[in-house]
Amino acid sequence: MFELKDVRYKDILHIKSMKIPDKTITCLVGESGAGKSTLLKMLNIMLSPDHGDIYYQKNNLKLQDPIQHRRHVVMLAQQPTIFEGTIRENLQIGLVFSEQKLKEEQELEEALKIVHLSKLLNDDAETLSGGEKQRLALARVYLMNPEFFLLDEPTSALDEETEEEVIGNFIKKAKEKEQSIIMITHSQKIAEKYGENLLLLNKIEEGQDG
Ligand SMILES: Nc1ncnc2c1ncn2[C@@H]1O[C@H](COP(=O)(O)OP(=O)(O)OP(=O)(O)O)[C@@H](O)[C@H]1O
């Protein structure tokens, strides 16, 4: 579980109190610029709050080693990086970064299936379309098999039908493994269909505190 206590970041975020449960699909919604990505980055220790504390499984993130934390909590950025090389290399690189054993070909192929990417492992990743790159990056974090996924609009470049299939598959697998997800989404349909817990972030208005 994540727990936030009086967290402030510049004039972007002020969260007095928030709990984000384990083994749950949490959808994070709110207007553009409300600070959703900023919040996810704080949960992954890419940013630190100016004030207040964030706890993960009761441990204060201020005292945690970011590299260690990211073995348990993996973030998929809004514009994920695709590296020069093959699809195989792009899948394995998440495991290299988190110092995990590389996966067998069969597991890599299964990950591609989950995200509906019908390409060969030897294909060049850089020639993929925007939506295909997004799915490749989602397959990469899937293989990292963390306790908690932080997904920043993971399927924003996909058409509605593919989006639902990919998210549906991903969530099914996460549920089987009792993993937790926080997902930023602009799709009301996705939030309604898959969100077990809904978090709404509002923009801080002038004069408003929290
Ligand atoms: N490091 C930073 N320093 C200053 N301002 C920042 C920083 N990071 C983000 N911002 C600003 O904070 C606000 C919130 O940004 P953020 O990306 O968290 O919003 P969001 O809710 O994820 O938006 P969107 O739905 O458009 O992706 C924006 O106005 C952004 O320009």
TrEMBL record:
Main location: membrane
Annotated GO MF terms: ATP binding; ATP hydrolysis activity; transmembrane transporter activity
CDD domains, per the entry: ABC_cobalt_CbiO_domain1
PROSITE patterns for this protein: ABC_TRANSPORTER_1, ABC_TRANSPORTER_2
UniProt-annotated location(s): Cell membrane
Pfam hit, one: ABC_tran
Membrane topology per record: Peripheral membrane protein
Annotated InterPro entries: AAA+_ATPase (IPR003593), ABC_transporter-like_ATP-bd (IPR003439), ABC_transporter-like_CS (IPR017871), ABC_transpr_CbiO/EcfA_su (IPR015856), P-loop_NTPase (IPR027417)
Gene Ontology CC entries for this record: plasma membrane
Record-linked SUPFAM superfamilies: P-loop containing nucleoside triphosphate hydrolases
Entry keyword set: ATP-binding, Nucleotide-binding, Transport
Superkingdom, natural source: Bacteria
PANTHER family noted in UniProt: ABC TRANSPORTER I FAMILY MEMBER 17 (PTHR43423:SF1)
Protein name per UniProt: ABC transporter ATP-binding protein
Organism expressing this protein natively: Metabacillus sediminilitoris
